[in-house]
Amino acid sequence: SALYKAWLQYAKVNDSEVCEVYKPLIQQIVVAGRIEGVLAAAVAELQEGIRSMLGFTPEVVQEPTGTSCLLLQVNKPEGAETAGAAGEGSGTVSKLAVQPGFDPLPMSETGPISQTSAQGKPWRVPKASAALEADGFTLLHVREGGENCLLLTGGSARGVMYGAFHLLRLISMGICPEGLNVRECPRNRLRMINQWDNADGSIERGYAGRSIFYRDGSMVTDLQRVKDYARILASTGINAISINNVNVHEVETHFITGELLLDVARVAAVFREYGIALFLSVNFAAPIAIGGLSTADPLDRGVQAWWKTAVQQIYTAIPDFGGFLVKADSEHRPGPFAYGRDHADGANMLAEALEPYGGLVIWRCFVYNCMQDWRDRRTDRARAAYDHFKPLDGKFRDNVILQIKNGPMDFQVREPVSPLFGALPHTNQVIEFQVAQEYTGQQRHLCYLVPQWKQVLDFDTYALGPETRVKDIVGGSRFPFPHSGVAAVSNIGDEENWTGHTLAQANLYGYGRLVWNPDLSAEAIADEWTRLTFGNHPAVVAGVTGMLMKSWPIYESYTAPLGVGWMVTPHTHYGPDVDGYEYSRWGTYHFADRDGIGVDRTKRSGTGYAAQYFSPNTEMFESLGTCPDELLLFFHHVPYSHVLHSGKTVIQHIYDTHFTGAEEAEGFVQSWEGLRDKIDDIRHAQVAGRLAKQAEHAKHWRDVINTYFYRKSGIPDEQGRTIY
Ligand code: BDP
C-alpha cells in the first residue's frame, strides 16, 4: 500500500518528457562482474523502481548491445582490479568504464537532490578516482560520439547501491539526466539507527505499534518486513543498526549465545544485503546472568575471558558483526561503578574482546543519577555526562566510540547542545538523536525534527576556535577520530505506515539524508520527502513542506516554554503535567514559584553547568543579556516580569505562544484539508485524523500551561483572553 511504501512509492511518471529521456538510457543495465550481495540489491531496486515508474523492466546484461545503457561499476583503489566493470575491449560502452589509477574526477557540489542535475558541465572521459570512498559514488551522463549513457560508479558495491537509490530519486522527482555529473560521499562514517525493541514485542518509547523484529520472546520467523525496513533505511544511507533496546532485559541478554544468536544471525543476513552492519545492545552483567560468574568486574580475568569467548562465538555466527551498544550505570542498569571501576575500564574490556574481529564498542554517555534528591539545588543532571566522561578523554581504546545525546538532558523540544562535543578531542564519538518523538508529541502531533537536528549539528563549539561545529566534530574532519558519526533512536513499529503518523516518516527519511550530508537544508529534505512520498504536484509540495517546516516551532510554542523542558505526564511523557516531575528524583525541574521560573545553571550563582562550554559559549549562556530567549529558562531563574530580547515579559510570552501555538495547530487541519483531492484517500484520512486530535490536544496544553502560570504568578494576560 501507499502507506507501507513510505518514500519508495516509485509512482508512475506522467511527465512524458522525463520518460522520453530516461527510456533509451536505461533499457539496459550493464554489469560486467558477478551480481551478488549488495550489488544484487542495487540491481533489483533499479529494475523494480524503473518498472514501476517508467513501465518497463530494464534487462541486465554483461555487455551492452547498443549505444545506450546504464553502466554500473565498482571503482577499486589504485592498483586493484576494477571489479564489476565492463572489461576492456568488450564493446563500445566498455571504454567508458573506469581505468584504475587516474586522477579523480572534478567534484560537483553535493547539494540538495533537486539541484544535482548539473546542466552544461563539460564532460570528461571518466577516470578512476582513488579518492572515491567506499560508500561514495559518481553518477555521470555521458553523451559522446553517438553514445548516450549513464555511468554509475561506486567506491564499493555499497556506493553503487547508494547511487542507484539516488538515480531512482531523480526519476521520481522528474529530474532529467541531461548533463548529470554527481559525486557524493557521505560525510559521516557511522550512520546508525538504534531500535529500542524488546524481545516480548514491545518497544520502549515506540509509537507505531509493536516490534517488527520480535513477538512473544522470540525473533519473528518471516523476515520480509525486516527486509523492507533494511531497504528503506539503506535508501537514505544508513549503514548500521542495533536491533534491541539499550535497556537489556533477561531474554535479550541471551541474544549473544546459543539459539538466540542464530536468530540474530538470520537478521544480520537480511541487513547485510543492504550494506547495514548489525549491532547488539548488551547487558554489562551478562557474565553473571548467563555465564554464572559471581562478578562482572571488568578487571577480573575470568570476566575478560568470558567476554572473549562470547565474542568469538558471535563472530563465528556473524563474521561481519558490528559490535556492542552499551548503556551502563544509568537508570538502574548494571555497569563498572558497582566494582569501583570507571567507564573506560568497562568499555575497554569489551573493546579488547572485539578488537581482533574489527568490532566496535559504542558506549553511551547517558549516565546520571536518577535517584537524586530534589531538595538539593546544587545537583544538576545536566552536568552529569560531562562530569563523568570529560576526565576519561584519551583513556579509551581505538575501537570504543562514545555515544552522546544531542543535549545534556533528554531529547526535549528545546535543549542546548551537549557540552561534551569538542571536549573529548582524543575520544571517538557519535551524536545521538531521537527520531522517535518521545517528548515531541509521540507521532500523534506533527513535529518535523530535521530543523532541530540541523541547529545542533551547526552549533559552533569553539573547541578549536571558531568554526568547530558539531557536524564537523562528529563527521571526523576536525579531530582525526578513527570512528565517528551519528546514531538515532528509530521511530518505526509494525503499523502499516511504519511510523504511526504518516508525516512522521519524514523524520526517518530526513535523519538518514541529513546524516549523509549535514549541509542539506531542512527545507530541501522536506521537499524531497514530500515529492517521493506524495508526488510532485506543486500545491502538495508547497503545502506539505510548509506544514513540516512550521511544525517544530508550533509544537514548542504550546508546550514547555523557553527551554525549561518536561512538564509532561510522568512515565508516558505524553500530555501536560506541569509539576509531574517537579518533586521526583529524576533531576528534571523548572523551579516555578509565585515569583519566577527556570533553573540557574550559571557558574556565578547556579549549578555551574554553563562553565562546561568553551568560551565564548559559556559567557553567552552565563549572561542574561546574551542568553538566547529560547534557552533562557534552561540557564536562568528569572521573575515572570523579566523582559526577553523579543520585548515581551516571560509571562506574556508564555500566554502569547500558547494561544498562537494552539491556533496554528488548528491551522494544520485546514492546510491539510486543502490537499484532499491531491492525496489518496487512505493517507489523507489517516493524517487528517491525527491533525484533528493534535489541534484538540494543543488546546489542552495551552489551557493547562496558561492556567498554571496565571495562578502561580497572579499576572493577567495583557490581552484579556480566557485563562481558566
Ligand atoms: C529516555 C527514555 C528512556 C530511555 C532513556 C535512554 O525515557 O525510556 O531508556 O532515555 O536513553 O529518553 O536510555
TrEMBL record:
What EC numbers are recorded for this enzyme? 3.2.1.131
Annotated InterPro entries: A-glucoronidase_C_sf (IPR037054), GH (IPR017853), Glyco_hydro_67_aGlcAse (IPR011395), Glyco_hydro_67_aGlcAse_N (IPR005154), Glyco_hydro_67_C (IPR011099), Glyco_hydro_67_cat (IPR011100), Hex-like_dom2 (IPR029018)
Domain Alpha glucuronidase N-terminal, first and last residues per copy: 6-72, 124-167
Drop me one GO molecular function for this one: hydrolase activity
Q: Which residues form the Glycosyl hydrolase family 67 catalytic domain?
A: 178-498
Chain ranges of the Glycosyl hydrolase family 67 C-terminal domain: 499-721
User: Which top-level enzyme class is recorded in the Swiss-Prot or TrEMBL entry?
Assistant: hydrolase
Question: What keywords appear on the UniProt entry?
Answer: Carbohydrate metabolism, Glycosidase, Hydrolase, Polysaccharide degradation, Xylan degradation
The UniProt catalytic activity note for this protein reads: Hydrolysis of (1->2)-alpha-D-(4-O-methyl)glucuronosyl links in the main chain of hardwood xylans
What Pfam families has UniProt attached to this entry? Glyco_hydro_67C (PF07477), Glyco_hydro_67M (PF07488), Glyco_hydro_67N (PF03648)
Q: Which family does it belong to?
A: Belongs to the glycosyl hydrolase 67 family.
* Quaternary structure and interacting proteins, as annotated: Homodimer.
| Protein's name in the database | Xylan alpha-1,2-glucuronidase
Task: Give the organism, scientific name.
Answer: Paenibacillus puldeungensis
Taxonomic lineage of the native organism: Bacteria, Bacillati, Bacillota, Bacilli, Bacillales
